């Protein structure tokens, strides 16, 4: 796994921690910096900052296209993966769309339950299809 992959996974850990502890991603990131010796890659920080900046819009889109699932009903890990994936897909111009979806599906396969990869693929795939009309 390359440095971007490791940075992405560290960002996922931080987003999940924030969701699980009912705190902000910024607080979780700060806690990591203060209480661990973990190196925080600049791309990890870019993901966290991007998700924070666009979280309201990301959450609205996820709620709209996660058919039958409210944000409150989603698993914390799936919600974190979807937020990260949606940011990379919609707001990170350096990331190819298909790669953003693929990375999120792989994280779901690795960190969540058996149903999550298909679910993540479905939601982010739909956002990918609609991307030209979503960010007008």
How does the SSE layout of this entry go?
Blueprint: H1 3-21, H2 25-35, H3 42-65, H4 76-91, H5 97-111, H6 116-134
> Can you tell me the overall shape?
globular
Count of helical segments?
Answer: 6
List segments where confidence is low: pLDDT < 50 over at least 5 consecutive residues.
Answer: none
Main pleated sheet? none
Main structural class: mainly alpha
What is the CA-based Rg, rounded? 14 Å
The share of residues in extended strands comes to under 5%
Order of helices and strands: HHHHHH
The assembly state of the depicted protein chains is: single chain
Q: How many strands?
A: 0
Distance between the termini: 35 Å
Helix content: over 70%
Q: What's the rounded overall pLDDT mean?
A: 94
What does this structure look like?
The protein has 136 residues and is an all-alpha fold. It is built from 6 helices and no strands. Helix 1 packs across helix 4 and helix 4 packs antiparallel against helix 5.
């Amino acid at each position: 796994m390359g440095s971007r992959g490791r940075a992405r996974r560290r960002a996922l850990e931080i987003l999940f921690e924030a969701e699980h502890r009912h705190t902000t991603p910024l607080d979780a990131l700060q806690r990591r910096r203060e209480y661990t010796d973990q190196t925080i890659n600049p791309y990890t920080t870019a993901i966290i900052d991007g998700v924070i900046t666009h979280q309201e819009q990301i959450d609205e889109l996820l709620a709209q296209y996660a058919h039958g699932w409210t944000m409150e009903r989603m698993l914390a890990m799936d919600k974190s993966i979807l937020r990260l994936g949606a940011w990379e897909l919609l707001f990170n111009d350096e990331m190819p769309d298909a790669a953003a979806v693929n990375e999120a599906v792989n994280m779901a396969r690795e960190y969540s339950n058996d149903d999550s990869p298909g679910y993540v693929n479905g939601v982010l795939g739909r956002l990918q299809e609609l991307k030209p009309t979503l960010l007008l």
